[in-house]
Amino acid sequence: MSETSQLIAALKKVLKAQGVTYRDIAAALRLSEASVKRILAAESLSLERLEEICRFLDLSIYELARLARAGEVEDVSVLTEAQEEALARNPQQMACFYLLLNGWTLARVARRLEMSEPQLTRLLVALDKLKLIELHPRSRVRLLTSRTVLWREGGPIRRMYERQVKAEFLDADFERGDALMRFETGELSDGSVGILTKKIDRLAREFENLADLDISSTPDRKRAVGLLVVLRPWVFSLFSKHRVQ
Q1: Rounded CA gap, 146 and 139, in Å?
Q2: Domain of 133: which CATH number?
Q3: Strand pairing partners for 42?
Q4: What does the pLDDT look like over 35-85, one tens digit per residue?
Q5: What is the DSSP annotation of the chain?
Q6: 26 near 35, Cβ under 8 Å?
Q7: d(CA 196, CA 187)
Q8: Within a domain: residue 160?
């Protein structure tokens, strides 16, 4: 595949990940949707057009090139019930798998989990048997999933960890400069709720894209970050208890 083809392929994956349509691109570039489809299909995108599209996606050409070169824009993986059950039963396996998903080296995983080499090897063998990784000689590891895993609704992982995660995540000082919490209430139409839902989904996908992009960054240039965005029908209990019937 040529470098141009790789760039276009990566661009299409980013569009899909962010929920951006050809119609959106056409509107931003003041072109017809058919023209956008033709340009991408023929791979006749000029550098100027590519820059315009990247600007619309809040992505630099350099970042797009990194994604194309490393193949870091991936689909979401869904594990089997048995795989999730095994991880839920063994917190160390879960922790090891999570760190590997985030691009940690085995040496860093061992230090973080405070494990000896034989202990880590046993974990890797277990993950290999679960077909989550492929363990090669000299403890080289290849992931058999994409780096973004979608945990099953009501599945073993969510049942075991979701309540704990929510409690720990919200038990924080959100007045700090590196934290942000906004809580808004109001009455919205179904149409407005639909618009917000799409925007939230796009934000989550952008978070995943940035996490994929930063996999190759050195440890001193990144840190663990959590993003929790929730939207649901809700009436404050103070009001619902005293609602006039």
Answers
A1: 20
A2: 1.10.10
A3: none
A4: 999 888 877 788 888 888 888 887 778 777 766 765 544 556 778 889 999
A5: --HHHHHHHHHHHHHHHHT--HHHHHHHHT--HHHHHHHHHHT---HHHHHHHHHHTT--HHHHHHHHHHT---PEE---HHHHHHHHH-HHHHHHHHHHHTT--HHHHHHHTT--HHHHHHHHHHHHHTTSEEEEGGGEEEESS-SEE-PPTTSHHHHHHHHHHHHHHHSS-TTSTT-----------HHHHHHHHHHHHHHHHHHHHHHHHGGGS-GGG---------------HHHHTT---
A6: yes
A7: 13
A8: no
What's the domain range around 80?
76-148
- Quote the CA–CA distance of 85 and 81 in Å, as a whole number: 6
Q: Give the N- to C-terminal CA distance of the chain in Å, as an integer.
A: 67
pTM exceeding 0.90 = no
- Among the candidates 97, 117, 148, a domain finishes at 148
pLDDT digits (tens, 9 = 90+) for 180-222: 888 888 888 988 998 898 888 888 878 877 887 777 677 677 8
Together in a domain, 85 and 142: yes
